[in-house]
Amino acid sequence: MKHDQSVTHTIGHLIDGRIVADAARTQPVFNPATGLSSSSVALADRATVEQAIASAQAAFPAWRNTPPLKRARVMSRLKGLLEENADKIAALITAEHGKVLSDAHGELQRGIENVEYASYAPELLKGEHSRNVGPSIDSWSEFQALGVTAGITPFNFPAMVPLWMWPMALVCGNTFVLKPSERDPSSVLFIAQLALQAGVPPGVLNVVNGDKEAVDTLLTDARVKAVSFVGSTPIAQSIYATGCAHGKRVQALGGAKNHAVLMPDADVNNAVSALMGAAYGSCGERCMAIPLLVAVGDAVGDAVVAGLKTEIAKMKVGPGTDNGNDMGPLVTKQHFEKVRAYVDSGVAEGAELVVDGRGVQVAPGHENGYFLGACLFDQVRPGMKIYQEEIFGPVLGVVRVKTLQEAMDLIDAHEYGNGTCIFTRDGEAARYFSDHIQVGMVGVNVPLPVPVAYHSFGGFKRSLFGDLNAYGPDAVRFYTKRKTITQRWPSAGVREGAVFSFPSNR
Ligand code: NAD
To answer: Is the ipTM of this complex over 0.85?
Structure first.
């Protein structure tokens, strides 16, 4: 591992409103465009995480009783601060994740929209009221805060995914401990400091950097009432099982292998443009990326492969800081090697490598960056590793089938069910597809159907463990518990004797 010793600093935690660093264990953070490391991140031990939980626990009673409108105003101020600091946040994302700056701005904007939604909290928390459910009896349901809640987030959207979680948790009256990805921790920490500036009281939002030790502490500590997780499927499944076994409410969003279906009647040029961004944007490191295209019929299959080949030749690969580039590097050396090995395995298993991105040339000074050019496989078949497994890199595979039903059967048989999309001009086919397909988020001529902040995000099958989706209306339900109160004030003249039968409205 290369360290540039001249600028080393340790990225710490935010606990009780202060930056602290327990640097007993640290891990280098790399700039994927150069392969150099200029900082390291502290990896919290159990005691540090317990300190963060204690701080969140102590801050809970006052925050719970803060009027929702005041909590919401904090989010309105935060929205302004995020917009003012957008360039700085995007630069932090690009420096550690590698994605191009325009894409970093895009992820931040989607995060800001979640903050904006959180600022509607008083409306979202109004509850339900029924008058006269019985004689002079009123009943209502209210949505009460849970207490200390926690989030564990992946590397690929270091700003956006945390913003799916804690703004909604906070406006619902909870306090929060966030454990972001140790691979790109700086933008998260900076945003948390902006939250303090916006008026989040110390202890209400804490950030602990770390790895499995920190996560295990959050999952087993009885003071943590709910855990939101986003990351790979094996970890999501184990987080769900462990968190539930410790009596917590858990939503754990996992990996994906999203298929797009290209119908014979589709506008192929539009589909090619859409697929370029969906397959290669952010180097394929998106859980809603399209790594598989199912072409229905050989004519449209041949046309799309030819179109993609032409467009890939025009793509610019290089450091994300250069606005002229379309695609940056992969996040770490290990991930780069893993994705390359998938390309090797696709060749070995007999898929046709139409475009080979291995050995891509990038600007001088970036030879040690983790760059892989766009790869395109044709003749991919179920059973191949590149078909079955999530690659999370710039690798698009084309599968050929004869009918829409065959395409749908393939999608439904896959272990993941996060997103999918159909390109067609046939409304009936699109309606049938979106009605029946076993996938949580469906696009019709929309390649990345990521729900907006006022809907909720979640997949089917092994892409989500839990009952409620992330952000939007589901987040209000996830971060609150329903309490139903039934009330009567007997007036002086009305006195009932004991009643032994079950009350009803007959
Ligand atoms: P990851 O599963 O490796 O890590 C996610 C988080 O879990 C990180 O904070 C990490 O520190 C922690 N973690 C890792 N190993 C752990 C362990 N053994 N025990 C406890 N905690 C552990 O995922 P990643 O590589 O950071 O992110 C990419 C994955 O996330 C992809 O699979 C992608 O599809 C998925 N993802 C899913 C969604 C979604 O909404 N479904 C969104 C973004 C990313």
So the answer is: yes
Ligand 1, atom 34: closest residue by C-alpha: 255
- The active-site residue, picked from 172, 283, 287, 421, is 287
Residue type, 134: G
- For 150-174, how does the pLDDT look when each residue is reduced to its tens digit (9 = 90+)? 999 999 999 999 999 999 999 999 9
Q: Which residues pair with 317 in a beta bridge?
A: 327
245 and 269 part of one domain: no
Which of 412, 444, 476 is the endpoint of a domain? 444
What CATH number corresponds to the domain at position 393? 3.40.309.10
Alpha carbon distance 165, 167 (integer Å): 6
Helix (H, G, I), strand (E, B) or coil at 363: coil
Is 287 marked active-site?
A: yes
Asked whether residue 7 carries a pLDDT value surpassing 50, the answer given is no
- If asked whether residues 186 and 316 sit together in one domain, one would say no
Distances (CA, A) of 283 to 103, 174, 393, 401: 11, 35, 6, 27
Whether 34 lines ligand 1, by a CB cut-off of 6 Å, is no
> Is 232's C-beta closer than 6 angstroms to any atom of ligand 1?
yes
